[in-house]
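Reopening this one. Same input as before:
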Amino acid sequence: MPHNPAAGPPQDESLGELVAQASDQISTLIRAEIELAKAELRFDAKRVGTATGLFAAAAFIGHLVLILASFTIAYWLVAAGLSQALAFTIVTVFYIVTAALLVLFGWRRLKGLTKMQRTARTLKHLKGGPDELDSVNAAKLPEGAGEIGARRESVTDGR
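Same output, byte for byte:
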């Protein structure tokens, strides 16, 4: 029988009964929270799916616009006096150079990855294994890397 808080403190309930009630209430609360999380996740997943479809449609239309704009630029060059072959070659070379620059910038961004060196070192340290990453990568990390709050100064020192 559940306890009614308005009736005052329980007089005849044992500690075991109280623990059982608390356990049951916690279990019910956790199940309700899980159901709420599932419902929110379903709702968010539907919205993400719809947004993804809209972005894909926009990307497709943007691609078509790029193709049409390429033809327009090429024909403007023809109207400016260039031969048709030269005008289309100029537009094509422009896109090749643009793509090459994007690949170059992307490649440089990938080279800057740290390969999770700090995480790997921490996991090795937590497992109690040898920390070979420290000796190999000590020169690569900036001074003070991984020292949280080690260089923090007091705000009252400068007064």
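So the earlier flakiness isn't reproducible anymore. For the record, The chain has a mean pLDDT of 82.
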